[in-house]
From TrEMBL:
Family note: Belongs to the MAM33 family.
GO terms under cellular component: mitochondrial matrix
Coiled coil feature spans: none
Lineage of origin: Eukaryota, Metazoa, Ecdysozoa, Arthropoda, Hexapoda
InterPro entries: MAM33 (IPR003428), MAM33_sf (IPR036561)
Descriptive protein name: Complement component 1 Q subcomponent-binding protein, mitochondrial
UniProt GO BP: cytosolic ribosome assembly
Natural source organism: Pseudolycoriella hygida
Amino acid sequence: MMNTIVKSVLRVPTIRSFTAVGRRDFARTFWHMSKPDVVPGASAIPLKKPSQFCSCGCGSHRHKQTKAEQELSAFLNEEIEAEKATQKSFQSLPTQIDGFKVALNGSDIELTKQTDNEKIQISFNINHTVDTDTDDVEQDINANNENAMAEMKSTPNFEVDIVRGGRTVSFTCSFLKGPPEDEYSDLFGIDEVTTFEGEWTEKNYAVAGNLLDGYFYDLLMSLLEEKGVSNDFVAKLSQLSTNYEHSRYIELLEKLKVTFADK
């Protein structure tokens, strides 16, 4: 009776080498091992029968990375390292800003200040808020400036609710585009103002900020400043949003890395 030859191909992870300019060279190596079942003097290397879970027959469920997943993993390793290096220059996220308590919930940020007769609540979402449209940042990116990411800022639209009793006066505000003309120029403006009792609904009337009488508009801006929503505060709000958005971006990269890891 002829001897039966069992052949098994063991997979070796892709070997990556990185050049100084960041190019990735890929090399793939396979180990081919075989063993006669009954050949005198042959070394006995026990091989398991492959299963539907794992090609080596260990019985565990093993995910093998595809080529795209391997390349994505290599990029994620570099990107996470670079983003964390940039993050070191950022300050830790504050628990309060100018008397406003900071609460983080996913991509939402809420700042609240409570007094005896009113509550001031500022809320915004960090998604799609990083400004990459400024000329300076575009020039830095085109010139491969390593500091370009540090100069990108999150400038979210934000809601300011002044709650007194059962009534709320609500402002929708946004950052003004372009550099300020001088130190007294506003960093933000009022897009919309409304007032309502109880919870807001779409039936509540709202007026656009650019339709307001100029003097009326200035009075409302002075009111916001008096309540603590000043140029200085809004600049700190932007820094908070920038740092938090960056931390969430790194977290997203790390989750992608775990999801598509070779395991």
